[in-house]
Amino acid sequence: MFRPKASRILCLIGFTVSLAVAGCSSGNDPQAAQRGRAGGGRGNWPGGGGEFGGMQQAVPVEVSTPFRSDLASYVFGNANIEALREVEVVARVNGLLERLSVEEGDQVKSGQVLAELDKREFTIAQAEARARLENAKSVYERNLRMLEQQLTSQELVDRAKYDFESAQAQLDRARLNLEYATITAPISGVLTQRLVERGGLIRTNTVLFHMADTETLLVRLFVPEKELGRVNLGDKARIETAIFPGENFTGEVEMISPVVDPATGTVKVTVRVTQGRERLKPGMFCSVYILIETLRDALVISRKALIPETESPEVFVVDDSSRAHRRRLTLGISQGDTVEVVRGVAEKERIVMIGQEGLNENTPVRVVSEGTDSIAAPDSLAGQRKQWPSESGQKGSWPRDGQPRQRSGSIPRPVQGQ
């Protein structure tokens, strides 16, 4: 009746001895201990920290080295192109519009005839004023002779003089109205708009035409006051407009306002167009880049190398052992997709361009593409992100941790050679 109990005691002793022998073997094998620590201490399977933990898989990345380039720093602003002068041509007298001599878009010179009103009434008024003047002149001269003979009083002579001068003024007014019936250009420029039709009744101060002096085109920008110290008279500017994509026009800073707008904290800067006046038109919306600084042979990287959503600019640098390390940068001026690196990386260091999402400090990486130009580096890994072929030949997705997703229910296989 005691045999079953004795058997259980013997089995317990044997199991305890087995555990002790296994513990000693593991303690004497440093490589096994190292594998256990690398994989979370639970086996030889990749994806440490779980039941099948082991060596960490290398994350595929695309790298490039910083390169040297010339950079320019700009003050940027958007505005509409304006003509140096824009005027309205108005009627100075009433009358029927008898003749139109120009159309919209015509280039005209100062003093050129644009339109004419019916002049018959003005001609008649001028003739009446001339007749009154001649009569008043005759009366005045006769009174002067009579005064010399003491046949009239000084009062009558003064009245005759007044009538003569009034008649002279009326004749001058009649002549001026006749001149106003011929409408001329007040400036040299282009006729931008015609607002009347031939045969229409024109009233005094009616706007007939709009004109603009397009020999000089201006762009008035409002730049932040903190940039005021960097902008100077004579600074060169680049002008771009969506109407002519891919084309650049040039300008020059001509005026800087001496006051700051307290409501907006901006300063008005006027840029004069120096090249492209024949193609640019008043009213066009444009972007202006005022050149304020130029750097020669600066060390630059592409913006896409920067780790997103960080408090300060950082990149991942790949060392000789193919491991990624965070590196904080001090950046300078930027231009387009490039940015100057003042401090943080050397010229020949390898910087991760694509694949940062799956990296942490000291993460092993596998370089799938390496370039020397950060801008021109091929986006080969970006295509792998969209469609990554799984082991079964089906298309899978590339998760944010940089690791291929396993099919549901499958167990990762050990990484060969690690």
List keywords for this structure.
418 residues; alpha+beta; conserved putative lor/sdh protein from methanococcus maripaludis s2 fold; Elongation Factor Tu (Ef-tu), domain 3; Helix Hairpins; 6-stranded antiparallel barrel; 5-stranded mixed β-barrel; 37% strand; disordered N terminus
Low-confidence stretches: 1-5, 19-53, 374-418
Q: Which strands sit side by side, in order, in the main sheet?
A: 2-9-12-11-10-13
Distance between the termini: 55 Å
The count of DSSP E runs of length 2 or more, i.e. the number of strands, is 21
Count of helical stretches:
5
The average pLDDT value, as a whole number, equals: 79
What is the name of the CATH class of the domain at 59-69 and 296-396?
Answer: Mainly Beta
Shape, per Cα inertia axes: rod-shaped
Computed over alpha carbons, the radius of gyration is 45 Å
Can you summarize the main beta sheet?
6 strands, antiparallel, barrel
Percent of residues in helices? 10-25%
What is the level-2 CATH architecture name of the domain at 59-69 and 296-396?
Answer: Beta Barrel
Could you describe the 3D structure shown?
With about 425 residues, this protein is α+β, with helices and mostly antiparallel strands. Among the domains are: about 110 residues, conserved putative lor/sdh protein from methanococcus maripaludis s2 fold, CATH 2.40.420; about 70 residues, Efflux pump adaptor protein, beta barrel domain (Elongation Factor Tu (Ef-tu), domain 3, Beta Barrel), CATH 2.40.30; about 60 residues, Helix hairpin bin (Helix Hairpins). The chain is built from five helices and 21 strands. β16 and β17 form a beta hairpin. The longest helix is centred in the first third of the chain and has 29 residues. It is rod-shaped, with a radius of gyration of 45 Å.
